[in-house]
Give the backbone structure.
Amino acid sequence: MFQTIFLELNVFLKLLKRDLKIFSNNAIDNYINTMCWVLLSLIVYQFIMPKMGLNFKGDFLLVSCVISKTFFGIMDNVTNIVADLGENKTISYDMTLPISHTLLFIKIAISNAIYTCLLSLLVLPMGKLLLWNYLHFPHFNIIKFFIIIFVSSLFSGFFSLFIISITKSIMHIEDIWSGIIHPLFALGGFNFTWKVMLTVSPFLAYVNLFNPVMYMFEGMRGATLDPTLSLPFWTCITMLILFSVPMGYIGVYLLKKRLDAI
Amino acid sequence: MNNKNIYQTFYALLLKDIAIYNKRWIYRAIDALVWSGSSLMITHHIMPLFGVTDPNYGIFILLGNFAIWGLFEMLTSIAMFLGDLQGDKSIFYYVSLPLPSYMIFIEQALASAYRSMASSLLILPMGKLILGDTLVLSSINWPYFIFAFIMINIFYGFLTILVASYVKNLPALTMVRSRIMFPLWFLGGFQFPWKMLYGVAPKIALMSLCNPIIYVMDGIRSTVLPTEQYLPFWNCMGVLIFFSIICGYVGTQKLKRRLDCI
């Protein structure tokens, strides 16, 4: 029995290593894509939007950008995997390896989590380097920062599994962007906090408590900005872990059904 | 070739693409509503708490959503085009029809324009529901508005051809999103008028005149909001026609080479 477990773990780690190798091959492209997002958001929100009256600035937006990358980052791999499911089906080969199919799908989630974590880890330093004097983080807590990135990435990884399982083909990827990803992101608080939403519309704010992306944003603000602005940090962490479980479970279940996995 | 035959074939192809899209129209229209509705609600209800005092900011963003949707729909059209190239390759049948090959691509551009027009149609009525009395329909210069709407989407159609001619495969769509669509969108005045950008950063504003989305945004907004805050309407339309010709010409030439057309 232990031999089987070790064998499965070995295959699991080898597959993860393979995915990381692919990531490192495309790392420059990925970081350039990330830079485009960070740089443009910072320029617009630090220098232009204050003229429209907005009173939050680059530091608020930069931490939102970190989470944006953690959340959006999964879509790169989702697109690749959905394209693969529709055409080459290289996953069929992975499914013949001595690893349980559940573990294989969890590997996809973990791999996506690592990918998005590596991308988002650099967003804050890159932003700070770009606009050094304009950005100030007196409440920055590095341990909480790493914890929220790690947990958010993990959630995103399992969420990606769910998205892959419900996306019929590559032609429907835009439906996912517009119908699921963007609303969760926009209502999740890219440019506002949950407490502000509560003052405007308590009903919407309470409904938004079911939006996991909101906990990602709030947790990140709790770790980097004034903690009184956001929901308690550890509540966000707990909620993200709780949301990861059903996402992973449904994702694995639907993928198994779709691929006739055992 | 007989001109009548050419136009009949062209028209039949266009009708075929329209009929295919109409089956999917409702899904894309819902996507547009979800995306636009979520961003409009935040802008209209929450952004005033962050200092935005302009009472027309909701209308400003609604018009931005209405005009930018075609840019998102462009990705769907590119996905369809590339999906066909990598899969059924039905395009090779079309280029064998009694039609000059460049007209096939013009037809694809017009079909793409139809897709973005059709899917964004419901955004305005939904905006009226959210904004209520803030949006006065009688204040819209309807002939200009309709003309701008058609012209903008025709431009997106030709932009689709240009971008599709450069994108290698479906997974590369991620790159299109990060490096083409996002910079065009974010620096294209979606959140600010060009004249305001000129007041903040004249050099960036002058450079952004090379970004066609500036004309899309200012063109459509000048048909509803006070014209003195925006670039002149006919200048915007003229430049969009110019960009459409350039995109169409370059895109057609590149696609002809890619598909080995005569």
